[in-house]
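Batch job 17 of 40 flagged for manual review because the log was empty.
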Amino acid sequence: MIITIDGPAGSGKSSAARIVAKELGYALLNTGMLYRAAAYVVLTRHNFEVQGEFPTFSDEAFERLTNPDEDDLAALEHLEYHVEGPSVTEATIDITSRLYEPWIDKPSAVISQNEDVRDIIVAMQRAVAQNHDVVAEGRDCGSVVFPDAEFQFFLTASLDIRAQRIASDAERGRGVDFATLKQRLAERDERDMNRSISPLQVSSNARVIDNSNLSMAQTVDRIVNVVKYGQE
């Protein structure tokens, strides 16, 4: 069985997916990890220097992310997603701990718009689902990756609430004032919703849950009740 949970940043989809997967005994597929891994592999292959938490990359670096060459794409074939954890390895080397450093946010968004990269990553995601019952979370799991998933959900919340959640996260909100964080979040929403390839959107079969005023436990209960009992 495949359950998809999509939504914008700060909607709680990652936490909800993790808890739902644990409650149901399913594997967790964090699709965003693979795009972050793709950006990490391409940038480190070419020794682009990373300075500070939110570095400014050179035009050359962004050109590489936008148009990876054949060797870059071949390197992505060595990525492996492991449902235990979950974790990602590159040629058997575990790179998971590097994937949530703040500097990789924007590069991962850039590389995810490359069609060749998406073809590779989507194939990896679908391969995981062939071997496991999964809860897949991301931005296009229901609309693109698993359009025939048995259960599809889209989590959302107001911009202020989502920004507050990120601000309260020890890692994601570290060293960033609320106004700046909110602005970055709005810009990310704009990029995700208007990108030409696999934009953030509600799939036709998705159940939308606005959890602005819901706790994580209440959000999870709504999802599990639909899956287990067919209750809205």
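Reviewer: the log was empty due to a logging misconfiguration, but the result itself is present. The first strand starts at residue 2 and ends at 6. Unflagging and moving on to job 18.
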